[in-house]
Write a structure and sequence with these properties.
The structure is a homodimer.
Chain A lengths: L15 H18 L8 H8 L3 H8 L2 H13 L11 H17 L1 H12 L4 H24 L6 H18 L6 H13 L13
The structure holds a DNA duplex (30 and 30 nucleotides).
Chain lengths: ~200, ~200
DNA sequence: TGGTAAAAGCAAAAAGTTTGCTTTTGGTGG
DNA sequence: CCACCAAAAGCAAACTTTTTGCTTTTACCA
């Protein structure tokens, strides 16, 4: 009785599948935005999307998987990080936005939704988004001729502690704490002895 | 229609409540140990525990909450970390066991179970367990007259990255990587500028 | 030792999920 | 361009899980 949904990434783009997917995702976001109390169920989403519940069950398998997919969409970066003219400026601004988004109640909910799934697919996508944004900043810094710690080190020394705080402690991290982590890694960027593990 | 279970920590220890709680927890562990495929449902747990489903729903609210509680029990340290005679030895041995336990498939499942809950209670308990173990090692080192980085720094520089890898990447961290993180923090223990956030 | 409130049992109703089959639909080869 | 085909959606009935009102049990307390 293992839940196992199908591919899910719209095998026929432009067709009915794509329309249904959009409608369902939108329905989820709308229901989440509404008071959101409790009634986020598959039948409710189906009704709002003008679709039959069995469609959702067959395509996503479970509500968790659907919520995970929606959260991943919300987390997908829409634009490259702002270019402030310096590595530190770019990272500081980007990190502030990152922490604000992730540490908020909706942000925490998104992360939990993403992690709920058994397969690490969406979670690693999520990490890849973050990695990509940092990598962009990194490449830009190198272009300027700046010395810049690799994205991987920033993930390890800044993002990981921030995420740990968000997931495992009652009080989410503050912008100040994030700044401290960033300053430390920029001041003492040791630990470059990196064998792989994050293949972008 | 918000799910909201009652206290859950056996208000009448020694009585029937405690017996039911034990039976239910045991039933969950047994079902998880068995092939575990799919049939981990509230009715299944109830049947195995010789209890009626409504008891479980009323006490735990949801299967997630129950699984979270069971996972927290499994994660509770039973003994203090082994004393190897040195800070580095203590930390290395303890960390090896930690990573082995957490990065395994059952370990990952436990962490996901703990994080599934909306309230951060169990997750922060879990972190507190880890903090406590490291704190024990730390205190022991100070007794020996060793210089030792605070537990909080180890959480930030070693545990958080390990957890991040476990949660967000397909390939869990290896013992080698954990060693690298530990070596780095022991070699360059900067970042002591700690305002609080983890009050043990 | 009875009184009492909290927790468990029970069973029926409600809600959610699965499934077999039919219908729609977007792509494809004739 | 049209008929065909397979994939996905709709539908509805069967099935499972969850909720709920009420009764019974039971540990604690006076």
């Amino acid at each position: 009785m293992q839940k196992e949904a199908v591919d899910r990434s719209s095998p026929r783009p432009g067709g009915r599948s794509a329309r249904v997917q959009k409608a369902v995702h939108r329905a989820v976001r709308e229901l989440q935005a509404d008071g959101g109390e409790g009634e986020l169920t598959v039948p409710a989403v189906a009704a709002r999307a003008g679709v039959t519940p069995s469609t959702i069950y067959r395509r996503w398998g479970t509500l968790s998987q659907l919520l995970s997919d929606v959260a991943l969409e919300k987390l997908r970066p829409e634009t490259a990080p702002v270019d402030t003219g310096s590595l530190k400026g770019d990272l500081t601004l980007w990190l502030e936005q990152y922490v604000e988004e992730m540490a908020s109640a909706p942000g925490r909910a998104m992360i939990r939704d993403i992690l709920r799934e058994t397969l690490p697919g969406n979670a690693s996508q999520c990490s890849a988004f973050t990695y990509g944004q940092i990598e962009t900043i990194h490449a830009r810094a190198l272009d300027r001729g700046e010395l810049a710690p690799p994205a991987k080190l920033l993930l390890e020394r800044v993002i990981a502690p921030v995420m740990y705080r968000i997931l495992f402690t009652p009080a989410p991290p503050t912008a100040e704490e994030a700044h401290r982590l960033l300053d430390e890694v920029l001041t003492y960027p040791l630990g470059q002895s990196n064998t792989d593990g994050h293949g972008q």
